[in-house]
Amino acid sequence: MNDRNIWKSATQKKVKEIDAFAKEYIDFLNNGKTERECCDLGVSMLEDAGYTELSKVIASGKKLKAGDKVYTTQMNKSIAAFQIGKKPLTEGLNILGAHIDSPRLDIKQNPLYEDGGFSLLDTHYYGGVKKYQWVTIPLAIHGVVVKKDGTIVEINIGEDEDDPVFFISDLLIHLAAKQMEKKASEVIEGEALDIIVGNMPLKDSKNEEVKDAVKGNILKLLKSEYDIEEADFASAELEVVPAGKAREAGFDRSMILAYGHDDRVCAYPSIRALIDTKATERTTCAILVDKEEIGSVGATGMRSRFFANAVAEIINLTVDNYSDILLSRCMANSYMLSSDVNAGFDPTYADKFEKKNASYLGNGMALIKFTGSRGKSGSNDANAEYIAELRNILDKDGVIYQTAELGKVDIGGGGTIAYILALYGMNVIDCGIAVLNMHAPWEAVSKADLYETYLGYKTFLKNIGTSK
């Protein structure tokens, strides 16, 4: 067991720093419950810090030089940001990579219907969820509706105190004898995760009964409030997430309970570390990507060419004669922290963890040599030399960290974006924060781990690879 609890050694000054950073992160969480919202927040943070959109630099015809700061986005769902270092890019980048999508419910393209006096929206769950956790809790709807003329209608309903919320019903205990006999994975079926959005019927001018009157009333409200037609759902991206704000947790306020810690608890310190790190020898980079929870697929996921294309553009703006071999050298000589969360040790389910190789809330940033499942299937298994270099720079800066695995060997497993970047031949290791209740509507993290990880990320950006 790693026993380097941050709170035990934290000075009063550091405790204040931890709390201040946590408050900023809580604000980020409350305003960024979807990948689009996180992308918008990230862009605002970068521009406030003097970063310029890459497309504007390309259009200007100017070259990039040491100290320049640029960013680019992909479909308003992923970000790649760079601070140009003094060394040629062919010597590699120092990369922090996190994801900004989280498990949720997505509203289908033809979702609205009426049944039993209710109007409901049909959903499809996204990512790994325990479906029974999503019933009977207050839910909010976030996203965009794009109309045929290109008009974008932004939706955010359920977060303000005066907003209505939505919910998924569950069978009352008095009638649930058969339901209670089912396996947990079958207690709530995927097609039963439909959210109730109304119960009031619409009446016509003659006060006569109207077919599907409750659905009709919802359509009337959507038209008057948002100028949305039923057909517009076909070109909408609407996400159902837990309603409510992130909160401090525990009598001692040492933790944060919130939706979406996986992986925004790593995404926020990643982008903050990039912004707060001054000019370095090597070019530094933070990437915040979409679709990790469903395999990093699609144009906005890590498997797309988005990041490689961005790096190619950056190289092209620093040399006179670009070629693909320069991109290959840059990627192969890069170092990356796959900034993703790990399962925090839970004493209630202690039998699922191997204690001396578990990550503990309050014990600092977690270095995870490999993820995968069982026989390390699907894993990026980090190089020992790379881990030694990380240990060296973290210890020199007094960063508290722990090493960990994702539960016992034969219990299960999981993956991150680490193996995708490793395909380029770069050094990659998973490195993030211990989370309790991972993938539940409400997850818990330690404030101390959040801040210590931010410090570790800054050390990584500044110092990794500089001894060569």
Overall shape: it is: globular
What integer is the average pLDDT? 95
Q: Mind describing the biggest β-sheet?
A: 9 strands, mixed
Tally of domains: 2
Oligomeric state as shown: single chain
- Helical residue percent? 25-40%
Please name the CATH architecture of the largest domain.
3-Layer(aba) Sandwich
Which CATH C-level class of the largest domain is it? Answer: Alpha Beta
What is the fold named in CATH at topology level of the largest domain?
Aminopeptidase
- Termini separation: 33 Å
- Alpha-beta classification: alpha/beta
Strand content: 15-25%
Which regions contain 5 or more consecutive residues with pLDDT less than 50? Answer: none
* Name given to the CATH homologous superfamily of the largest domain: Zn peptidases
Number of helices: 12
By DSSP, the count of extended strands is 22
Strand order of the largest sheet: 1-2-3-13-4-14-20-16-18
What is the CA-atom radius of gyration, in angstroms? 24 Å
Would you kindly provide a written description of the structure presented here, covering whatever features stand out?
This protein is of the alpha/beta class. The chain has two domains: 302 residues, Aminopeptidase (3-Layer(aba) Sandwich), CATH 3.40.630; 139 residues, Roll (Aminopeptidase i, Domain 2), CATH 2.30.250. The protein contains twelve helices and 22 strands. A nine-stranded mixed β-sheet has the order 1-2-3-13-4-14-20-16-18, with helices on both faces. A six-stranded antiparallel β-sheet has the order 8-7-10-5-6-9, covered by helices on one side. Strands 11-12-22 form a three-stranded antiparallel β-sheet. The longest helix has 20 residues. The chain is globular and about 80 Å long. 45% of the residues are buried. The model has no long low-confidence stretch (mean pLDDT 95).
